[in-house]
Amino acid sequence: MIDILINVTLLAFLAITSVAILRMTNLFAIVMLYGIFSLLSAGLFVVMDAPDVAFTEAAVGAGISTVLMLATLALTRSRKRGHEGDYEEKPSRAHRPWLPLAVVGITGTALVYGTWDIPGFGDPNAPAQTHVARYYIENTMSDTGVPNMVTAVLASYRGFDTLGEVAVVFTAGVAVLLLIGGRRPKSGAKVKSEGGEDEA
Amino acid sequence: MDFFIDHYNYWVVIFLMMVGLYTVISRGNLIKKIIGLNIFQVSVFFLYISVGTVEGGAAPILTDGIELYSNPLPHVLILTAIVVGVAMTALALALVVRIKESYGTIEEDEIHELDHSL
Amino acid sequence: MKPNLILHVVSKFLIPLIIVFALYVQFHGDFGPGGGFQAGVIFSAAIILYALVFGLDAAEKIIPSHVLRILASFGLLLYAGVGVVTLLLGANYLDYSVLGSTQIAGQHLGILLVELGVGITVAAVMLILYFAFAGRGRT
Q: Which of A1, A111, B10, C95 could form a disulfide with A115 if both were Cys (CB 3.0 to 4.6 A apart)?
């Protein structure tokens, strides 16, 4: 019972944080709130019995991605305005809120309608629990001798999948190096006309 | 009440998903759009982990005397998705940095105006 | 940057601990929560902390960026290479059972090597990302 209570409370916090992120206009505060959002979700992953995922989310979401976003903010802030307005998001002129709200409302309603048929939270007889997962739980020890099932599935049963994921991470690193790996070109005006030829 | 507890996770997931989607559609600032995408992404993580949770189950690390475990498969998928997600976020942020260097702004409206005034 | 004594002392104390913890997560991942992905991110967090406190140039002296590029490719190649070795030994791609005398020993060795490859690549790529963003700021 207590874990359901923690679950409900943390999810409510997450929802409140996300609305705060949506409504704020100071980008610096938004990035900090996003770090808190990640930390809350790491806690929630622990409550839902996923320590490996919580580990990753705490290190990645609250650590690396916050640092990267702060670095981007430092690179993209406008220097024309005063110090107070450096990180301020400008109000959008072209958009009215009603069309996005309608899209989001209709999509959300359709998705909520879809949850009527989903098996309840934590149901041990749900289809997701009865097929391949049961095999992993019963045979991991005799197949691989590794007690941590997540590691066994990650590296052994689904090793091909993980190879692809590592390749994606590597490719993203290469792409970022191509985009912003060199020093910044001296004259910012010429960059636009030359397109992609200015990678140093 | 049982119906509420059974579906509360999924409803909050949908709520977070819609907040992320709304941020992406309605806000013009590119960094804010990326944060909206990230919120959307985290909501999908919650959907997977919620599906994999078993009531009264333990974390999927084999221990003597425990019979009921959570489903390890969603954990594996999401574990890798988080790291791939941050790599993709970094790629998007790198594009934002280049847009700022070329256009001098990261507001969508101003970029459109600059494009049309050419 | 003005040197901050407390920040320097505390981070000098913390960084070795973070690196030891990353190694623990890497090699104890078979038995507790952890594995290559987490260990790589934690290791890179230690170096990023060093770069934030002592400056980017000091951090690039420890791990130069050309070494990072080689490491990132090496991890992926190690992963794919384990698969090729199993192919040459007559099993399917990434079927580690043939690597050791028994199936369990082979699986242990294969999982260890593969997780090591994942850890090296993830740590190197995260550092490449940080260095790219931080290095863009100086002209």
A: B10
What are the b/e assignments for B38-75, b being 16+ CB within 10 Å?
Answer: bbbbbbbbbbbbbbbbbeebebbbbeeeeeebbbbbbb
What are the structural domain ranges in chain C?
5-137
> What is the rounded CA–CA span in Å between residue B106 and residue A96?
19
Q: Mind listing the pLDDT tens digit for each residue in A146-176?
A: 888 888 888 888 889 999 999 999 999 999 9
Nearest to A180 among C104, C121, C133 (CB): C133
Rounded (10°) angle between helices A132-144 and C103-137: 110
Q: Do C133 and B79 touch (CB under 8 A)?
A: no
Closest-CA distance, A36 to chain C, in angstroms, reads: 17
Interface of B with A in 60-99 (CB under 8 A): 60-63, 68-76, 78-80, 82-91, 93-98
Asked if B54 reaches chain C (Cβ–Cβ under 8 Å), the answer is no
Q: Which domains does chain B possess?
A: 2-55+70-116 (1.10.287.3510)
Give the pLDDT confidence score for residue A86 in this predicted structure: 66
Question: Which residues sit opposite B107 in a β-bridge?
Answer: B29
What are the tokens at B19? 């907040």
- Asked whether A124 and B54 are in contact (CB, 8 A), the reply is yes
Nearest CA in chain C to A76: C137
DSSP A128-160: HHHSHHHHHHHHHHHHH--SBHHHHIIIIITHH
pLDDT of residue B18: 95
For residue A92, give both structure tokens: 């959008």
Complex confidence, ipTM: 0.91
Task: Name the residue among C31, C35, C125 with its Cβ closest to that of B87.
Answer: C125
